[in-house]
C-alpha cells in the first residue's frame, strides 16, 4: 500500500492519530474526510480503526490490514501511541501532497472532535527545507527565497545534497495563523553563487541580475537576518474576525479595486506614453 511513496526520494508516508475518532466518527465522516483531502491532491485516505489494541490485528478494523505484515502493524500502533477507540489516518504520496492534505485534515479533526485548545498558543516553525524539486522544469526551487541562508555553511555540502538541506528560515504562528516570518540571509558570495546554480541561474545571468549583490558580498557582509510581522493578521485574531479584510482600513476587492478611491482609474495616452506602454486592441474576428 505504501511501498511506492516510501521508496521514492520525493515521497512520504505519514500517519495522523485522531484520539477517540474510532468511537465518534462514522464511515460517512471518513468518506467526507476523503473528499476533503482530495482538495489538496490526495488520491485517497487510508485508515485503521483501533477497537482493541491488546488483540493485535484481530482488534483492528481496516481494508488495508491485509496488505500489512504484523511487524508493520505493531510499529504503527507503537509510533502513533494509539489506544482503544482511536482512529489512525494515513497519507502516502508526494511529500508536498501528504504535508498539505494531512496538515489541513489535522486542523479539521481538531475542530470537529473538540481537541483544539483555548487561549493563545504561539509557536515557532523552523527547520524548513531549503529547496523543493520542480519536476516540470527539472530543477530546484527555493522554498522561501533565493537569499535565505542554508543551515550548513559549506557550499560544497549544499551542492552535494540540496534535497536534504534545511534553511535558516522561521515563521511565527499563533493559533494556527502565521503572523510573522523571516530568515537569516546569505552573507558569503560563494554560498549565494551555489544557490543560484542550483536554481538554474548560471554565472552570466546571476551577474546580470544580481551582480550588485554578489559584488557587495565579495567585499564582505556580516551575518544578518530579520522578521516581518503581519499586524493585520494579529489584529484579526485579537478581534475574533474571520478575515483580515475586516480589520484593514482600506481593503481591496478580489479584483484589486479600491472602493474608497475607485482605483484603478483609466490611464491617459500621455501617461501610457511616459511609461512606454502601448495598448493593442484584440483583433476583430473575420465574418
Annotate the secondary structure layout.
Blueprint: H1 3-7, E1 11-18, H2 21-24, H3 27-38, E2 46-50, E3 60-61, H4 70-80, E4 87-94, H5 95-112, E5 122-125, E6 131-134, E7 139-142, H6 155-160, E8 169-174, E9 177-185, H7 189-198, H8 203-219, E10 224-229, H9 231-239, H10 269-274
Antiparallel strand pairs: 1-4, 2-3, 2-4, 5-8, 6-7, 8-9, 9-10
Q: Would you mind describing this structure in some detail?
A:
There is one protein chain. With 287 residues, the protein is an alpha+beta fold. The protein has two domains: 3-116, GAD-like domain (Gyrase A, domain 2); 123-232, Bira Bifunctional Protein, Domain 2 (BirA Bifunctional Protein, domain 2), CATH 3.30.930. It contains ten helices and ten strands. The protein has helices at 3-7, 21-24, 27-38, 70-80, 95-112, 155-160, 189-198, 203-219, 231-239, 269-274, and strands at residues 11-18, 46-50, 60-61, 87-94, 122-125, 131-134, 139-142, 169-174, 177-185, 224-229. The strands form three sheets. It has a four-stranded antiparallel β-sheet with strand order 1-4-2-3. It has a four-stranded antiparallel β-sheet with strand order 5-8-9-10. Strands 6-7 form a two-stranded antiparallel sheet. Helix 3 (27-38) packs across helix 5 (95-112) and helix 7 (189-198) runs antiparallel to helix 8. The longest helix has 18 residues, at 95-112. The chain is globular, with a radius of gyration of 25 Å. It starts with a helix and ends in a 13-residue tail after the last helix.
In the CATH scheme, the class of the largest domain would be Alpha Beta
What low-confidence regions span 5 or more consecutive residues with pLDDT below 50?
none
Strand content: 15-25%
Please identify which CATH superfamily of the largest domain we are dealing with.
GAD-like domain
Total strands: 10
* Chain-averaged pLDDT: 93
Helix amount: 25-40%
Computed Rg: 25 Å
Write out the strand line-up for the largest beta sheet, numbering strands in chain order: 1-4-2-3
Order of helices and strands: HEHHEEHEHEEEHEEHHEHH
CATH architectural label of the largest domain: 2-Layer Sandwich
Number of domains: 2
Amino acid at each position: 500500500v505504501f511501498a511506492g511513496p516510501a521508496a521514492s526520494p520525493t515521497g512520504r508516508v505519514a500517519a495522523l492519530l485522531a484520539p477517540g475518532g474510532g468511537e465518534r466518527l462514522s464511515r460517512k465522516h471518513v468518506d467526507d474526510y476523503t473528499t476533503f483531502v482530495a482538495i489538496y491532491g490526495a488520491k485517497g485516505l487510508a485508515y485503521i480503526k483501533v477497537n482493541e489494541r491488546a488483540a493485535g490485528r484481530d482488534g483492528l478494523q481496516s481494508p488495508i490490514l491485509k496488505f500489512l505484515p504484523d511487524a508493520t502493524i505493531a510499529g504503527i500502533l507503537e509510533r502513533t501511541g494509539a489506544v482503544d477507540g482511536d482512529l489512525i489516518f494515513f497519507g502516502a504520496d508526494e511529500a508536498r501532497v501528504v504535508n498539505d492534505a494531512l496538515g489541513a485534515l489535522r486542523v479539521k479533526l481538531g475542530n470537529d472532535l473538540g481537541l483544539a485548545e483555548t487561549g493563545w498558543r504561539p509557536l515557532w516553525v523552523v527547520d524548513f527545507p531549503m529547496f523543493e524539486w520542480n519536476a516540470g522544469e527539472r530543477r530546484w526551487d527555493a522554498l522561501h527565497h533565493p537569499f535565505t541562508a542554508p543551515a550548513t555553511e559549506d557550499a560544497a555540502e549544499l551542492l552535494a545534497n540540496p534535497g536534504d538541506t534545511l534553511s535558516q528560515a522561521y515563521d511565527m504562528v499563533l493559533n494556527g495563523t502565521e503572523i510573522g516570518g523571516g530568515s537569516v540571509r546569505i552573507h558569503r558570495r560563494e554560498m549565494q553563487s551555489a544557490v543560484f546554480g542550483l536554481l538554474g541561474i548560471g554565472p552570466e545571468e546571476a551577474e546580470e541580475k544580481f551582480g550588485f549583490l554578489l559584488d557587495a558580498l565579495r567585499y564582505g557582509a556580516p551575518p544578518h537576518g530579520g522578521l516581518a510581522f503581519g499586524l493585520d493578521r494579529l489584529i484579526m485574531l485579537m478581534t475574533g474576525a474571520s478575515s483580515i479584510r475586516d480589520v484593514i482600513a482600506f481593503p481591496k476587492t478580489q479584483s484589486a479595486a479600491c472602493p474608497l478611491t475607485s482605483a484603478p482609474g483609466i490611464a491617459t495616452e500621455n501617461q501610457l506614453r511616459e511609461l512606454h506602454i502601448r495598448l493593442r486592441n484584440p483583433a476583430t474576428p473575420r465574418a
